[in-house]
Every structure is written in C-alpha cells, then in structure tokens.
Amino acid sequence: MTGGLGTGRGGNGEDAGADRRIRVARRALVASMSMLDALFVFFVLLDAVSAAVEGIALWPSVVALPLAVGAAVLLHLLFLGRLDGRREPAPGPYWGSVVLIVLCCAAVQSPLHRVIVLALWWAVVVFVASRRRGAAVSALTLALPWLLIPFTQVDVQIVPFLVTWALGIVYALMLCVGMLTCVWLWEIVNDAVAGQRARARLAVTEERLRFSRDMHDLLGHSLSALAVKAELASRLAGRDRERAAAEIAEVRALARTSLAQVRAAVSGYREVSLAEEVASVSAVLRADRTEVTVTGLDGVEASPGAAALAAWVVREGATNVLRHSDATRCRIVFTRTADASAGPRALVVEVANDRARSGERREAASGNGLAGLSERVAAGGGSLSAARTGDGGFLLRAVLPL
User: Fold this and answer.
1) How far apart are alpha carbons 322 and 14 in whole angstroms?
2) Helix (H, G, I), strand (E, B) or coil at 336
3) pLDDT of 173 above 70
4) Which residues 6+ apart lie within 8 Å of 149 measured at CB?
5) In what order do the strands lie in the sheet with 343-353?
6) pLDDT, tens digit, for every residue of 228-250?
7) Would you tell me which of 33, 107, 228, 296 could form a disulfide with 64, CB atoms 3.0–4.6 Å apart?
8) 30-74 pLDDT tens trace
9) Measured distance CA(138)–CA(147) in Å, rounded
10) Which CATH number fits domain 274-401: 3.40.80.10, 3.50.50.60, 3.40.50.150, 3.30.565.10?
11) Cα–Cα distance between 278 and 282 in angstroms, integer?
C-alpha cells in the first residue's frame, strides 16, 4: 500500500493480478460449462447404447446425437454471452437451441434419458434470457416429457414415469442454482475489479487536477513575464546593449524564480495542505459509496510540519478504507489534547471505518503503508496506532505534536 491515493490502487502489478484472477475465474466457469455440454451429449449417446442393447430401433437415437451436439454448442454460446454481460441473447441461437432440444428429445427413446437431457438444458437456458422467455421455456420443459410419450418405443408406466419426472425437476433446480451461483459470483468479481479501477482513475484525476491548478496559479505569471522580457531583450540587442543586458539579467532571475516555484509546486503535490487532503479523500470515498463525516477540522491550528503529517495520516487511512474494508461509513476526527509522549499540545487524528475485512494481510514494506507512515510520524515526534475495533471496524489513530 502506497502513501497516496493516486498511486495506491492503479499499479501495473495490481492490475495484472486482477486480470489474471478474472481470466482464471472465467476459464473455470467455461470448463464447468464444457463438462455440462459433454454430459448433455453423453446421455444421448447412452440412449443409443440402451436402444441397441434392448433391441429396439436404433436410428432415432442416432439421429438424436447430432441434434444434441448442435443444442450443446448453441447452449455454450448462450452461456458465454451471459458471461460477457448480455442479458438478452440473440433470438437465432436461443430459439435454435429450443428447436434442437425438442427434436432431440423426440428422438431419444428412454424417458429417463429424456428427462435428464431436458434438465441439463433447462438449467442453463432459463437464466440467459429475460424472465418472460424463461417462463415460456420452463412451461415447455415441464410439458415436453409428457407430450413425447406417444413417440416412445419403450413401454411407459405412468407412476414410475411421474416419479422420474419429479426427480428430474429437482435435479434441474439444483443444477440451475449452481449455475446461477457461479454466474453471480463472476459478476461480483467483475463489478469489484471495475469499481477498484474506477476509484483508482478518480484518485489519479484528483491528483492531476490539483497539480494542474498549482502549475497554472504559480507559474502562469512567471512564464508570461519571461516571454515578454525575452522578446524585449531581443529587440534591444542591436540598439541598446546596456538595457538589453539588464533585461537578460531579469530573464535569468525570473527563470530561477520559476524553477523555485516548480520545486515548491512538486513539494506541495507530495505534501498538500491538510484541508485539501481531507477534501480529496472525502470525494474519493464518497465516490466509493462510503459516507464520510469530518469533525474538528475547522479548529485545527497546526504548524506546517504537523499539518503535513496529519495529511499523510488522512491519506493513508482513506487508502486503508478503500483497499481493506467494505465500509459504508468513515469518520475523520481531529481533536486537540495533552499527551505525555507528544508534549503539552498535541493533535489527535483518527480515521475509522465500520467494516474491516476479516483475514486481510496488510503489506508493511519500508516507506510504504502503515509501516512507512509509522516511521514518518515517529520522526515528527508523534505516535501511530492501528487496530480493529469491537464493532468489526478499523481505527487508525495518530498523536502529533503541535
């Protein structure tokens, strides 16, 4: 974890790790769907083997095989579209799979195999389209095993078939719940990564805007003056050498001043004022749907060093909220107090959130994160503590000498 919000979220290594996790999750889901496709075709093939063993007509089951393969391919494409975020599939593949499954089930001879094939197909196709289509397809799936009884060569006993049909419904519901859970978790991962990147872009934009404003305010006048003085010196070079030399000296002085202003602007970018930092992190946290309350900032009268340290504490606390919590509320509190370790006048800065993630392992590299912040605060004569709270939150607390 780095010290600033602008760089704490959008590193190349972190992005690469997120992309890798997304790819692995997608491959796992596609592999699971491929196994379901194979199972779909397997039961149709098993129906052909059963027909050969029982001595009934084999050709219907053989015809069912390419129909099952076609339905499985279309089903796989519909599933991939759902992973890509398409809530409403193309009508062609969707209704094509419906036609193929009806023809396939009409050719399958065993009522058991027919029910299993329908259950496997329905468990996926029911949630890749709108609820209205899903309801129509569900009604067709429930009625189809009964409608195809006249086309079955084997004897069908009503009671055993009713039990098989009911168990098929249970099996289909279990498969559907599993598929829905997988897709739901996939969407959560995608939303989390997208939100993480959006927060990183927002934080970087805030930093760039602040730096741009500093450059404009501090250097605009100096650079304009440099241009005017240089142009005047060039005009006087052939007519009035002494005055031209004086103008060149002023250009040199202005250039040095401008260089000092650049350094001051960069220093201000790294150690911004406390009020600016609080406003910046509050905007980022609110963009993350975290309610922020700031208390005691108006009454803070600190030296530049103490204010810079307080700004670092606020920045690091907000970064912790973004990276290591699911917070809905964040409190940033400033209080003045007497502390034995920090002297008779001290500023207490507290950044607290209400939902710290369990099992998080915080990085503690030198110069980064809480370890680096603790060293920075200690060098300024203060102290830093970070701990979970009893209500499941997290509290970062710094005591800074004034």
Assistant:
1) 14
2) strand
3) yes
4) 111, 156, 161
5) 291-295, 329-339, 343-353, 394-401, 383-388
6) 677 777 877 777 778 778 878 87
7) 107
8) 888 888 888 888 988 888 888 888 878 888 888 989 999 999 999
9) 14
10) 3.30.565.10
11) 6
The DSSP element (H or E) to which 398 belongs, if any, is: strand 394-401
Task: Name the CATH code of domain 201-270 (choices 2.50.20, 2.40.128, 1.10.20, 1.20.5).
Answer: 1.20.5
The one-letter code for the residue type at 146 is: W
Q: Kindly compute the dihedral angle of the four CA atoms of residues 52, 54, 59, 62, in this order, to the nearest 10 degrees.
A: -50
Return the beta strands (E) in 321-393 as ranges.
Answer: 329-339, 343-353, 383-388
What are phi and psi for residue 385, nearest 5 degrees?
-135, 150
Q: What is the tens place of the pLDDT at every residue in 337-386?
A: 866 555 567 899 999 999 887 765 444 333 356 777 888 888 888 899 98
pLDDT per residue as tens digits for the range 179-231: 888 888 888 877 877 777 787 778 777 777 666 655 655 565 566 667 767 77
